[in-house]
Write a structure and sequence with these properties.
CATH class: Alpha Beta
Distance between the termini: 14 Å
Strand order of the largest sheet: 1-2
Order of helices and strands: HEHE
CATH architecture: 2-Layer Sandwich
Number of helices: 2
Largest sheet: 2 strands, parallel
Radius of gyration: 14 Å
Length: 76
Amino acid sequence: MMPGFDLARVPAVFERLRESVQHLEAQGWPGDRPLTFSMGATMALDSDPDLDWVIKRADEALYRAKNNGRDRCEVA
């Protein structure tokens, strides 16, 4: 949740997060397999009946990012 955030800035935020994750070392994670970061983002609309609709759109965008190759961001 980022109230008042411009959706057009999401790709830049995503890239900073992705680069940070890329350099992490996770205990038990194979060193020859890089960590990836996928993200789904959306904006709450006046027509949304409740927060569940917004979360559902963001979740769907996240799964699109994963299904389209991971280590990426999808905006709904």
